[in-house]
Amino acid sequence: MATRTAPEGEIISISDGKLNVPDRPIIPFVEGDGIGPDIWRASVRVFDAAVAKAYGGRRKLIWHEVLAGEKAFTATGNWLPDETVADFQKYLVGIKGPLTTPVGGGIRSLNVALRQMLDLYVCLRPVRHFAGVPSPVKAPEKVDMVIFRENTEDIYTGIEYRAGTPEAAKLLEFLQQAFPKDAQKIRFGTAEKTDEFLRMIGSPAEGKVELGIGIKPVSRIGTERLVHAALQYAITFKRKSLTLVHKGNIQKFTEGAFRDWGYDYAERAFGDYVYTWSQWERTKAEHGEVAANAEQKAALASGKILVRDAIADITLQQILTRPEDFDVIATLNLNGDYLSDALAAQVGGIGIAPGGNINYVTGHAIFEATHGTAPKYANQDKVNPGSVILSGDMMLRYMGWTEAADLIILALNRTIAQKIVTYDLARMLEGAREVKSSAFADSLIANMDRAIGDEHRKGHELVNEVVSADLIKQVEITQYSRFSVGALMTRGVVSVPGDAPLADTIHLMRRRGITSVVVEPNAAGEWGIMTMRDVLEKVVRDDRQIAGLTVDEIATHPLLTITPEKTLAECAALMIERHIRRVVVTQQGQPMGIISETDIFRYMEERSYAQEQE
Question: Which residues contact 527 (CB under 8 A, 6 or more apart)?
């Protein structure tokens, strides 16, 4: 049972830009208002089951309830108690259901308040279609986008003043005195303008101004940290493009500045990894359009990420007509709000749209349902818990618990394919079996068991399953030269303890599609590695029985490593000298990636092709 007293677990920490997640991490949660308790009860059972089944009891989420919204107000008289903010601050990673926005004065939005208090500057919204989910568009499977929405600036800062208040009058007076030409652009900024129009339509003059005023702050630093996170994500997960969505054709010094700062930072900080439309424009001006097109083609052929921009209203049209043209999107707060929900509608609605609010520098992250509280359905065990469940999937991936996250996605795919859905999808899906929130969770958990059973029955190979490609991991801040090991390595490694059963580890490798695992330190403190070749040479060739063998019995110790700063030439020399095909990349003694001869060979092929196009 969740409790608001200090739970018995361990605290997630961050060092050198990397999360340190213990086996029993304390996770603060807010169940939410309205339908929140219903969907939380369903979702938490799914999370717990996935973790238990993926790790055999070795890991467990330690839930810690914190208060916000109506439940907090009823208990404390405060919509967002200081203790709740302090716990999210302390434990780094949390999750929440939908919250009521208080009516009247005080906090304008609890969600926005939490984002601002913890400086959760990225609102991350991956949008993809699950096969079988009804959609209003013809080809929802073409939607595969990840939105990085700036979370702390724009008009969502809440700097606005109600019409008729002294604050609004004072700000209007300041504009009229300090910037009279700009103040003239306000259509009804004076009593004279107001009365002039009223007389035109035959109404009596009022002799007053009723005008609400808001401020839209957009900063260079706010832009740069958002673009950094978006581009690091694109590099890590091998996405093809980043689109800066803005309304800079009208708002030139806020939205337009976002576009310009975004291009400048991309070229300055990620020059080895990107090609921008800004570069294309400069080349066109100097050498002509043909040269600019050839330059872009060669850059993309060499593996560079295209950084481009699009006007917000045109983007809303093109995500419908040409969704395949969009990949990663970075945009300001209001545009991101519109885009996220519009895209969610294309793949089945916000009922299955997840969201995460992240500060990649401090490690703080709160994952959340993206829909409202729907109070008329409260306590009916009726509403789709998919948004919270998929937000939990994002949370687990952020923590590095991808095996549990994969199990959730496998179960969700199977359950939807069986047409077992809640009412929101059942009314649009022919032949569907409508179930309650709790029963939907039951089906997901049952399908986890079936997926695991099928894995064993079919030679440990999951058939006809699609695992989410939207892996959400901690962003690494360090950038490496394009000709270095760090630039080419596959980030992230799978590690197993040396006493892990060899049979189970082979199953894991097949499921994850990997050819090697790093072996955790032995009694001598040495890391090791076990590869598919080790299995062939030390088990199959010698006709040994796999039952009873552990990973350490065939692994290689100590681990041969290289640092990410080393050049490809140095890496190649090491591979040739030691007669090996892959090397684990370490930083401060900790494995962080792996590079193989295939990675280097592929890079040389792409490089030679790009040079031929120049």
Answer: 518, 519, 520, 521, 557, 558, 559, 561, 584, 586, 591
User: Which one is catalytic: 18, 53, 71, 247?
Assistant: 247
Residue reference for tokens 């208990």: 75
What proportions of the chain, in percent to the nearest 5, are helix, strand and coil?
45, 15, 35
Which candidate in 18, 38, 121, 156 is catalytic? Answer: 156
Helix (H, G, I), strand (E, B) or coil at 543: coil
Please tell me the predicted confidence (pLDDT) of residue 503: 87
Give the model's pLDDT for residue 235: 92
CA distance 381 to 290: 61
For residue 126, the model assigns a pLDDT of 92
Rounded to a whole number of angstroms, the CA Rg of the chain reads 27
Q: Are 24 and 59 in contact (CB under 8 A)?
A: yes
Contact assessment for residue 394 and residue 124, using Cβ atoms and an 8 Å cutoff: yes
Task: State the alpha helices, DSSP H only, in 139-254.
Answer: 166-178, 180-183, 191-200, 220-236
Helices (H), ranges, 179-310 = 180-183, 191-200, 220-236, 255-270, 277-287, 289-301
How far is residue 360's CA from residue 471's CA, in Å, rounded to a whole number?
15
Distance between CA 533 and CA 3 in Å, rounded?
49
* Verdict on whether the full-model pTM lies above 0.70: yes
Is 82 designated active site? no
Task: Please pick, among 337, 341, 504, 534, the residue that the annotation labels catalytic.
Answer: 337
How many Å apart are CA 324 and CA 516, to the nearest integer?
A: 33
* Catalytic-residue membership of 247: yes
Q: What is the mean pLDDT of each run of 10 residues along the chain (614 residues)?
A: 67 90 96 94 94 90 93 90 93 94 63 87 92 87 94 90 95 95 95 96 95 96 96 91 96 96 96 95 96 95 95 95 95 95 88 90 93 90 93 94 92 90 86 90 86 50 33 46 80 78 83 78 86 91 89 88 90 90 83 83 66 52
Which H or E run includes 602?
A: helix 597-613
pLDDT for the residue 107: 58
Whole-number Å distance between alpha carbons of 349 and 133:
9
- What pLDDT does residue 570 have? 92
Would you tell me how many other CB atoms lie within 10 Å of the CB of residue 288? 11
Q: What is the largest CA-CA distance in the chain?
A: 100
Residue 393 is a catalytic residue: no
Q: Is 156 a catalytic residue?
A: yes
List 313, 325, 327, 504, catalytic entry: 313
Distance of CA 32 to the CA centre of its chain: 21
* 3-state SS assignment for residue 150: strand
Q: What span, in angstroms and rounded, lies between the C-alpha atoms of 222 and 516?
A: 40
Tokens, residue 148: 């990085």
